[in-house]
Design brief:
It is built from 20 helices and 18 strands. With about 475 residues, the protein is of the alpha/beta class.
């Protein structure tokens, strides 16, 4: 490394945020990038570990020490090439990845990991600014045709890699624009959508054909795709939301988080209200909002509700409150269980843990409150069991309830029924990570549709690996990286 003692001399410094009182007035990104000089200093903190655990902490196995050293030496273009060698879309992960690489950093033992995520984002952003990122069309065409179904991060990564290998790739998307969860689930204040648009332009110049507004399994069966293509990749994501099965669930004002987030994302993109909300507007303006679920989707709902002008926002989670700091001796270098506070939580939100919703109550068919009870988690025969705490009942005022409790897997109707692929014990498409092949010949699967609800960075990894498997299937061998 360029500065072996950097981690001893330089304190950790990360990107900042626009003040909550001003950022909630807009939908734009609120992160404040670090200056190039500061980024070079932060990169110098990389320790040149004998075993760089950040490699395994990162699902795409980014060569983090290498591009840290290159940034320190101000060799930004080479750093970009190194970053792109493992990650097709670092501007996505540099904004919305929870950074398991930083949890695995050796300096995280002292709670001061290298600012890997910020450096990654700065590298690719500079690459776009300098014009270093250009289309990479293949030198030759193979004559093979591949259909990719679902344009989220897994589908985009698979399509780009397969196009660069010389195959004729068509990427199908049921919605009107490319991006899947990246476009319709992630709010603009976390990732603006022009980032997706310029990648779509790059991919189109590399030979990818995009067909939007086409729902495979409905408008077009999988059999028709197989008739016109040599291989099909299923990358439709995990869109089956976990429901709240309690009395009063049918009251107006209780909605799945994704129904809520998709509406607002479409509005921000400029869609008219009748298109953004064809089944009725969901808005938090002036309402008492309760978000059920303590994960990232719940935080996205909080930030969206704050910008819409909610009267109050409460987030509840059925699991107990995590510790403020993990036990490093037990957890490092693995992803730890600890309290995580998103920027949205600082925009006006009350959080509560170990709370179970018992019923929803309402007036004139609309929800007005949630009856809840506190629970404790106890070990019973080796398993953790939930028990209600007597006398701990509470009622939360609620005009709008958003269900952000995760996803059970891919939707069965439509695509999967048409494909007739076998499912695993969790309800995901059955396929291993060696060949990504499903039970149906010439049909492959990747991303959340195969592995279940997961991170964007895992979807990119699976899309890349699936592309290599498809390329090897079609050509007998593949030079694409895993």
């Amino acid at each position: 490394m360029g500065k072996p003692t950097g981690f001893l001399e330089i304190d950790r410094r990360d990107r900042g945020y626009e003040a909550p009182e001003s950022r909630v007035k807009t939908w734009r990104e609120y992160v404040t990038p670090l200056p190039a000089e500061t980024l070079g200093q932060q990169a110098a903190r990389c320790m040149n570990c004998g075993i760089p655990y950040c490699h395994n902490g990162c699902p795409v196995n980014n060569m983090i020490p290498d591009w840290n050293d290159l940034v320190y030496r101000e060799q930004w273009q080479t750093a970009l090439a190194t970053l792109h060698s493992t990650n097709n879309f670092p501007e996505f992960t540099g904004r919305i990845c929870p950074a398991p690489c930083e949890a695995s950093c050796t300096l995280n033992i002292q709670d001061a990991p290298v600012t890997i995520k910020s450096i990654e984002c700065a590298i690719v952003d500079r690459g776009w600014e300098e014009g270093w990122i250009v289309p990479q069309p293949p030198a030759r065409r193979t004559g093979k045709r591949v259909a990719v179904v679902g344009s989220g991060p897994a589908g985009m990564a698979a399509a780009q890699q397969l196009a660069r290998a010389g195959h004729a790739v068509t990427l199908f998307e049921k919605s009107e624009r490319i991006g899947g969860l990246l476009r319709y689930g992630i709010p603009d204040f976390k990732m603006e959508k022009h980032l997706i648009d310029r990648r779509v332009e790059q991919m189109a110049a590399e030979g990818v054909e995009f067909r939007t507004g086409v729902e495979i399994g409905a408008a077009l069966p999988v059999e028709a795709l197989l008739a016109g293509h040599d291989a099909v990749v299923l990358s439709g994501g995990a869109e089956w939301p976990r429901d709240l099965e309690v009395e009063g669930r049918a009251l107006d004002g209780i909605h799945y988080a994704m129904d809520y987030l998709v509406q607002q994302n479409r509005r921000v993109h400029g869609a008219p209200e009748e298109h953004a909300a064809p089944r009725g507007t969901i808005s938090a303006r002036g309402k008492h909002v309760v978000v059920i679920g303590g994960g990232d989707t719940g935080a996205d709902c909080i930030g969206t509700a704050a910008r819409q002008g909610a009267a109050s926002i409460t987030q509840i989670e059925i699991m107990p409150k995590p510790p403020e700091r993990e036990n490093k001796a037990l957890s490092w270098p693995n992803w730890p269980n600890k309290l995580r506070t998103a920027p949205a939580h600082m925009e006006g939100c009350t959080r509560d843990w170990a709370v179970l919703t018992k019923r929803a109550t309402g007036e004139a068919g609309r929800v007005t409150a949630l009856d809840c009870v506190r629970v404790e988690w106890v070990r019973d025969g080796g398993r953790m069991q939930m028990r209600e705490i007597a006398g701990s009942e509470l009622t939360l005022k609620a005009d709008l309830v958003l269900l952000a409790m995760g996803f059970l897997g891919p939707q069965r109707a439509g695509l999967l029924e048409s494909a007739a692929v076998a499912l695993d014990g969790r309800g995901n498409v059955q396929a291993d990570t060696e060949g990504y092949a499903t039970s149906v010949p010439r049909v492959f699967a990747a991303g959340d549709m195969r592995r279940g609800q997961s991170l964007v960075v895992w979807a990119i990894r699976e899309g890349r690996q699936c592309a290599r498997a498809v390329d090897a299937f079609l050509m007998g061998a593949s030079s694409l990286p895993r």
